[in-house]
TrEMBL record:
Domain of life: Eukaryota
Any one GO cellular component localisation term in the record: plasma membrane
Membrane in keyword set: yes
Molecular function per GO: chloride channel activity
Protein name per its UniProtKB record: UPF0187 domain membrane protein
Region Disordered, annotated ranges: 1-53
Amino acid sequence: MPNLGDASDVISNGTPSPSPSPTPGAGPTRSQPHIQVQLSNEPPPPRRITPRPSFLENLADSRERQFMLDRRNSTDVDRYFHGPRDLDKHSKWPIFLRLHGSVMPRLVLPLLCVALWSTLITCISRFVQNLGIDNILLTVLGFVVGLALSFRSSTAYERWADGRKYWSLLIQVSRNIARTIWIDTAEREGEEGKQDLLGKLTVMNLILAFAVALKHKLRFEPDVGYDDLKGLIGHLDTFAKEAHDRNNLKPPRKSSWKAAGEYLGISFAESNPRKLIKRSKKPLGHLPLEILNHLAAYIDRCIDNGTLSCSLHQGQAISGLATLNEVLTGTERVLDTPLPIAYTIAISQIAWIYVLVLPFQLYTTLQWVTIPASIIAAYIILGLDTIGSEIENPFGHDVNDLPLDTYCRQIALELDIITAMPPPKVDDFTTRDENLVLYPLSTTGFPEWKDRSVEEIRSALRTKVVANIPVSASTTTIYGSSRSAQSKQSVSV
């Protein structure tokens, strides 16, 4: 009976391994021209038992490439108008001339409509029938519009500020957990120590993966194949991994009309931001929450094997995970609880009613100047309303939204800084000659001060306080002479 090869290779890789060479003296066999006979004694290269998932084919090769996906192949014009703004960029244009960050593109069509409307009312009043009315409504409606826009702006900015606070808290907690894991978690000897080191690096990636997964969840991007995420959580068994769909990563190309409509803020051209979630045929789970479960499992294992033995550090790690869960819940609250739709509709209607009635009130006084005056007033009123609607969801892709990619890149770079060096040992950096313990009073290093008595050290500390008093504080001759004497003493030290 012929040898069929190793059955484990067939099961793990899906294809049978090549059959060995026929035994001398055996009967005729079917020709196999593609079989290569191994002549050397070197063992064959190891074969991957579990095939790499399809979304891990191309990984990000740098931090910049990892978090600048949407701007990688774009032109300078696209990068200028595409948001959120890059905080590292600096513009020397005066603020009132800047277009990047302005809502002017979304006001082009509304202002054009107001210009046509005010021109129509002005021409009718000039050549057909005077439609001017008493401008008492200008004062009454103006007060109501001011209250409505104030309420709209304050609530929208509050949501924007809450989103920034939660992400700053996320950065802070990520630093604390990373420091606890890298510094306070011990590494055992031998092969176990190597496993501990690799386990620490795995947790560092999971801390970053939580931030990146939260960013994608807040932007209604449910997949795991994004370049900034797939290399961090490809080894986890999650619902999002099971529901991976390559089509979600390459949405169909938008027509020029639809792209222009979205840029100009036309509601009919805007797509449903939750469309990818609704089209999923499998349960998507909750990726950030599942990452927290894996982080909690790692901390429990460290407690069990004794590498995280201090109860204080254990409490810090567990409370850090609870804070991450608080950040997750808070950002979801900001995202899923916008201003009640009744307020939004009423404020928009009030603003438009005021703008449309404005030419009737201005014509009697301004005549032809009614047209530019109406356009300017519409820009002010509708601009404030548009800003409120744009920053109401601070986690999107608008120019004035929070730069979540920048925050994730910041966390990634800081984690790299923490893991770049092994946990420092106190005896290594305190006993160096470069450790100027009494600087700037003395440029003598730690080893020389170690040979002196405690009384000399304390006397030098007292001298350091007196010597550091500003010169302007010496207002009397007696104090000046005393300070001069102390300075001489410090020189001798």
